[in-house]
Write a structure and sequence with these properties.
259 residues, mainly alpha, 16 helices, 74% helix, elongated
Length: 259
């Protein structure tokens, strides 16, 4: 993996002028985590606050620490499924820590769980999408997608990207297009690393084309033509996965281009 790209992202979007606001996990925090997992602690806001605190703490690389962060992420994921809690996480300034952990944690398992939190939080949630964009999640996700070698984790990063750029919040979609996001989608479709990746990319492509053309913007559709994306779509029409074929047909329907 090319760690230089991720290092640049980390250096650019984190404040290196002061030490981390969190210290390595103390015994009191460890006990809280144990109680929370045993349902002794039931307050959602406290679970979110302390769970995010654990995820934000300095990583030392120990197996025990990795396990504790996995458990903390599991707790946060459970409460974040509530739309209001996802928005509260933004209002309280916690979401930026989830993004940093999702992109930069040294533990792949923790990055996967934070990616699940991210996907759940941004889904059809403009307030959270706007905060993710402000915290440079788009740049971080694109860097990770280009460099990730773990297929399952790469699939999750693409799911995160899909949740961020789709829907009524147009700013994330527009920035993704400006960052040559259609190039990224085309490369992922051509590589066809997994059916899940192809399907997520088709969802993004359909959303981009529909939402831009419905507003009279033919630019992204023309860019798809120039990039050869429609040739890629025609190739996918012969895919053995029926769902991929149906999704490809829907993209083409949105462009009013027939095979």
């Amino acid at each position: 993996m090319d760690w230089q790209g991720l290092l640049r992202w980390s250096m650019q979007y984190t404040d290196g002028t002061r030490p981390s606001e969190f210290k390595p996990m103390d015994e009191e925090t460890k006990q809280w985590l144990k109680d929370a997992l045993s349902s002794v602690v039931v307050d959602d806001n406290e679970i979110m606050q302390k769970g995010v605190k654990i995820l934000s703490e300095l990583e030392t690389g120990s197996p025990e620490e990795c396990e504790q962060k996995e458990k903390a992420a599991e707790l946060v994921l459970q409460v974040i499924e509530n739309l209001d809690m996802a928005q509260n996480m933004v209002k309280l300034g916690y979401f930026k820590h989830i993004i940093k952990c999702m992109i930069g944690s040294q533990y792949p398992s923790v990055r996967k769980m934070c990616a699940s939190i991210f996907t759940s939080a941004v889904q059809n949630n403009p307030i959270v999408q706007a905060n993710a964009l402000a915290e440079h999640a788009l740049e971080g996700l694109c860097a990770r997608i280009n460099e990730e070698t773990d297929l399952q984790l790469k699939e999750q990063y693409i799911a995160c990207l899909s949740g961020l750029v789709r829907g009524q919040y147009s700013e994330a979609r527009n920035q993704f297009i400006q960052m040559k996001g259609l190039d990224t989608i085309n490369l992922l479709l051509v590589s066809g690393e997994s059916p899940r990746i192809v399907k997520k990319c088709l969802l993004m492509l359909s959303d981009i084309i529909y939402n831009t053309r419905s507003k009279g913007n033919e630019g992204p559709t023309n860019e798809c033509l120039n990039l050869g994306i429609f040739e890629t779509l025609n190739y996918l029409m012969n895919n053995q996965d029926k769902e991929i074929v149906e999704m490809t047909q829907w993209v083409l329907h949105n462009t009013e281009i027939k095979c």
